[in-house]
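Incident log, structure service

09:12 report received: a user says their structure output differs between two submissions of the same chain.
09:20 pulled the input from the user's history:
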Amino acid sequence: MIHFAGASVSTDDPQYRTILHPFDLTLSEQRVSIIGANGSGKSTLLKLINGLVLPDAGRVQVGGLDTSRHGGRVRQRVGFVFTDPLAQLVMPTGREDVELSLRRQVKSGAERRHRAEAVLDRFGLLHLADQSIYDLSGGERQLLALATVLAVGPTVLVADEPTTLLDLRNEERIRALLRCLDQQVVFTTHNLDFALDSDRTLVIDGGKLVFDGKPRDAVDAYCALSSEGGRAPASPAAGQAFP
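09:34 re-ran on a clean worker, output below:
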């Protein structure tokens, strides 16, 4: 379970002083999607979940652990997948990247290699294990990034627009994978059809939660907000989160 209590994020930049206004929110659903315009605060909200960003006020807890006080333990529970997989794939090949992610958990080099191959096989990437990550397609890179994160068995996966750089075929591969994971998954997306692959959807606008509810209702609210002169109808949860 993910819990935000009065959490807010600000910056010293006078043009964008408040990135996220204070909010209270509890996320217990298996799949949660977050939609909103570029710069609305979606990615910052995701980064609060694993402590990549710490709140300036309030607190964020994952499984009862405070991200400000127990950052290392939180990051063991929360895996983060970036929009561009090359932002997180740091080794020359997929095999080496997965082995690197397992280094803390598995001390034996031989066992790490065995575990890495099993992970790569699960994601259909074993035949590409020793290819340069730069020779992989966009979809293969994103699958590898997911494999690297999931190899260590996080309980929560947060993904920041994981299908944005992909063609339709690879987008569906990633969506199908996310739908069948045992982990709680929280993701941002600009693809409103993808947003429907969830149990609950949040709409963020100008650093504020303006709608919180069923995916179809949230998408309709976002479309109304995005239309000229439109305004999203407030949901009860959104009203409580941002007074």
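09:41 both user submissions now match this output. Likely a transient worker issue. Closing.
09:42 reviewer note: The first helix runs from residue 42 to 50. Strands lie at 2-10, 18-27, 31-35, 57-62, 65-66, 78-81, 156-160, 184-188, 200-205, 208-213.
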